[in-house]
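We examine the record.

___
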Amino acid sequence: MNEPSKQPNAGERHEAIDVSDFVYAATGARVRRLTMPDGTHWFPAVDVCKELGHTNSRKALSDHVPEEHREILETVTGGYGLSIPAGREWRRDMNLIDLQGLILLVQSCTKAACAPFKQWAAEVIETVQREGSYTLEEAEVQPAEPGAPIAYAMPEQVAEAIVRLEAHNLQLDEELANGQRESISLQKEMLAIQRETLATQKATLAVQQALVRAMERIADRFDALVLERRAPGGHLTVLPTTESVLADWRERLSVTEDVWLVAVVIAPVLVERGELREPLESIAARTGLSVRRVNECLRLLRKHACIRSQGAAEDGAPVYVLNQL
């Protein structure tokens, strides 16, 4: 199937352009060709696109080759009852283009390197229209491998165009390889930075954990000592809390509920402010007791040495402080 067609006799089908042969003669690149029993030629789109510098063969076909000039391999061979060619490179869903599709794809290439190839294709079409056929001369040196296709000579401008395309593809491959190496280098640098960051975060976490443990020890020590302060006489005393004051009063008092209600109201004020300057009416409003009963409760607390009087404020309200023994 890869053998070139014989020269046509009068009335026979004209010989198709054997693209695989002239590409082989130039650079050794392989553009495969399938020749059907009726003499039509089909070419794998991926081979042609590669030689023209297209990176996306599907898009190139969609943009430049009409559907009637492209088909998949299974459909082409199945129409003649033929099987898929042997070998892993031939796939059932491979895109093929016919000779007209090949010419359209070549003519659509806008790259400067394709110009000589396009000019040569135009000359081939003109020759076929004028003379009815186009024949390539056989190259002086033929491949020695058994079964290899015949190598044909080609116009110099075509060979130069293909060589430039190959050089361009090699340059693109080198640029891609350089980009990949740079990307790998950057990824390694980022990985090193991430490792350093992780190590710093671990060290910071260890310091934070040590600080938390130190704060917990200080808090435990603080709870044990409460808060000590030095009294005028030189001895150490512990600052009272509302809970400690009420606990002390409960041990010393055996009183009615209303007295204890007044005690619960005034204890936080005495602890936080150091003295009580509220009018009796304010305490009565907060406890629900009468002013007279509030006054009696305060007198009872003074009697049991829970509080002591410090005179009166400017507004006449009595002033009381804790009676610390």
